[in-house]
Amino acid sequence: MKRRAFTLVELLVVIGIIALLTAILIPALRRTRLQAKAVLCSSNINQLTLGLIRYEIENETFPYALDTTSTEPPPGGYPGNLMYDRAGWWWFNYIVDYSKEDSESVILCPSRQILDSRLKYNVLCGNYGVNQSVCNH
Fold first, then answer.
1. For the chain, how many structural domains are there in total?
2. Could you tell me the pLDDT band of residue 137, with boundaries at 50, 70 and 90?
3. For 14-38, b where at least 16 C-beta lie within 10 A, e where not — what string?
4. How many CB atoms neighbour CB 51 within 10 A?
5. What is the mean pLDDT of residues 62-79?
6. Structural domain for 117, as ranges
7. 99 assigned to some structural domain
8. pLDDT tens digits along 98-110
């Protein structure tokens, strides 16, 4: 009885078809990923807006951009890096109770790209409502 096996040509054809399908699929996945980031960004901005509106309704004013008059640190400590940022309560520290439960993830922009490794984990750099000039040292 003769044993049947794949020839080299058949294997190359199958590998070529898989490569072609992968080449078609990758751009579609990239578009889907970008659309998901856009939806998350829109949701984050909506949650921040609702938090600011609720804060304004209860306090009849919007929070300061940066408040250094408080003597105690904000919840969770200072949001940035004390080596680069001014210590104080940032506006998003005031709306913690007014936005989503996980308010730290709400202020993080899903598309942000920080090249400086020292500032990569600094929540003040490249996120919503924070001027990039704050991060200059």
1. 1
2. very low
3. eeeeeeeeeeeeeeeeeeeeeeeee
4. 23
5. 80
6. 10-135
7. yes
8. 555 555 678 878 8
